[in-house]
Specification:
The protein has about 90 residues and is α+β, with helices and mostly antiparallel strands. It has one helix at about 40-60, and strands spanning about 15-20, 25, 35-40. The protein has a domain at about 15-60. Strands 1-2-3 form a three-stranded antiparallel beta sheet, covered by helices on one side.
């Protein structure tokens, strides 16, 4: 089929954010359109892979370029702030 990419693995940084009610939100920072959820980490990984595959297959059908992944992974830090009277 003309214009079809060769089969290969495409990988992206994915963030699995724990949700207070349980489970994980799944976000792909390089592709903000992708946001899904899994009840367990394993489920979240499956859901993330499926969402990523569907998005990339859609781009492929449109002959669009795949987004570049992040050059640097996201950073997570805890910030403390003082609240109260001076």
């Amino acid at each position: 089929m003309a214009g079809k990419r060769k089969s290969r693995i495409h990988s992206y940084v994915v963030v699995f954010e724990p949700v207070a009610e349980g489970g994980y939100n799944v976000v792909v920072p390089a592709i903000p359109e992708i946001c899904t959820f899994g009840r367990t980490l394993a489920d979240a990984k499956r859901m993330g892979a499926d969402a990523l595959r569907c998005h990339l297959e859609s781009l492929e059908k449109q002959s669009a370029r795949f987004p570049r992944d992040l050059k640097r992974p996201p950073r997570i830090a805890r910030l403390g702030v003082h609240i109260g009277t001076k």
